[in-house]
Write a structure and sequence with these properties.
The protein is built from 24 helices and six strands. The chain is mostly helical.
Length: 603
Amino acid sequence: MSEKMIPERKDIPDEDQWDLKPLFDAEEKWEALYAEVEKQIETYHTFKGRLQESLTVFKEALEFHLTVSRNIDKLYTYAQLRNDEDKSNQFYLGMQQRALSLVTRAGELSSFMTPEIQTIRDDIITHFSRDEALKEFRFYLQKILRHKPHTLDERSEQILAMSREMAMAPWQVFGQLDNVDLNFGALTDTEGHTVELSHGNFTTFLMNPEREIRKRAFFLYYRAYGAHQNTLAATLSSSIKKDFFYARVRNFENCRTSALFDDDVPETVYDNLLTTVQSRLAPLFKYLDFRRRALGLTELHFCDTYVPLIRGVDFHMPYEKAADACVEALAPLGAEYTAILRKGLRGGWVDRYENRGKRSGAYSSGCYDSPPYILLNYEAHNINSLYTLIHEAGHSMHSYYSKKHQPYVDHAYTIFVAEVASTFNEVLLGQYLLRFYHDRPKMKAYIINREIDNIRATLFRQTMFAEFEKIIHHLVETRKPLTLEVITAKYRELLQIYFGDMLVIDPELVLECLRIPHFYSAFYVYKYATGVSAALALADKVLTEGNSAREAYLNFLKLGGSKFPLEELLEAGIDMRSPQPVERAVHHFEHLVDQLIEEYEKL
């Protein structure tokens, strides 16, 4: 019997790692820039009390501040990427902590700027912002000025800036526990290999046709969380209380209002999502019931919700072929888009495979002065890895176009639109695979099944997560306790609502709420659900309307962060203030379920 272990970082070939040399080709250069920025931030005081002195001084201060921010972005990005390669590497952990400390110190020393800008007389700031010399900074200033009711005096702002590093403690503790200290054990696969269970292969095990293997993987995985459930409840509770602290200090009505304010997203958008999805759960129940019957089960458990319903399909796609498939799937976006993407995916953008200590999951990162980077834990036997690659490629191409067409001050797009760009790519991949396998009924049904499960996870599951966030924040806001028992009880209630009688809720499943990293970024997950709703509508426009819709979509990517997200989506042709995009997404899901049932019966 052989044993398959997770490789060490040093054993990953260079060609399978991202190339960080465009950021720093030697770590001495990172140290040199770090020292330079340390000196830079000590000169913030030269602008203090002088911002309304003249247009020249005002512009000089803004340019200085953004230059410092840009340099810090570069330093922090490199340190974070290195740290995520192997969370047990103490050198890069120290580098990341130093970068975070620099962020905190810069925030502290520059904390006078926002309140001072907000206290400039209206006639002076209006004169400044209308001047052609400050054209590039107009939206940046608009965002600062709309925060005026939520900005404190200079000393208070300084104290809040000093608190940022401490405020990250719940997230950092969770990250170290989840990525480094948790040991999930090992189990034997169908070929008799002993395989170490990890974040990276957990879903792969849940897709195994052998139910006993799926069950063992599920219970083994959650046994690790059960052993640390009190600690995890404490870190989550502390994170929610941190959100409440900052919402109160900033004079927001509640945590959700505070979280949505930066994007200028009204709470009705959030509530429309929850109401629309929860009132339209019938297609989800229909699918789960069909899944149970197709698997020949009397009861459906969570460990049965990932395994493909179409038997005899042995999906296997090495990374290189996956990169090619992504490029071909995105052909409707034009030759320029696909040429850039091909070069990036085959070049140094992607850190491809899992190694011991590597951050779990996947993301796209980078800064204004680097290529976009993608962290993956690619599994050739898992079709989800293919979808993850094209998802993160959507973020990366969004970053590429944003940086190419926007100045630094406006390049950073919001997460709200980011999830549209990434999910849009997944939609085109699904359409491409259905065309590619049109003459293979089994594979076609397999892809439809995957599309359904993707929307189920992105629309229904993330909406449930969003409702959970709203509930647990409200508990803290109303001074209710947020203990392990309360947290898991509330989550169980939501599981029963969103799965009805179609799924047996194993006691271990309620621990799921303790393992979601996004809960440490308040009110983030709803953007996945709104994102897939907008993406489905935009993809349909591009595929049916041709060049005009494609150009509108590419122009949307080029906007970066130069407008508020709802305005950017309106320019692309989608109004997320209306429940219609979410309703259309649910209808699309229902159509796919009916299509799957029809195709399945033909097999």
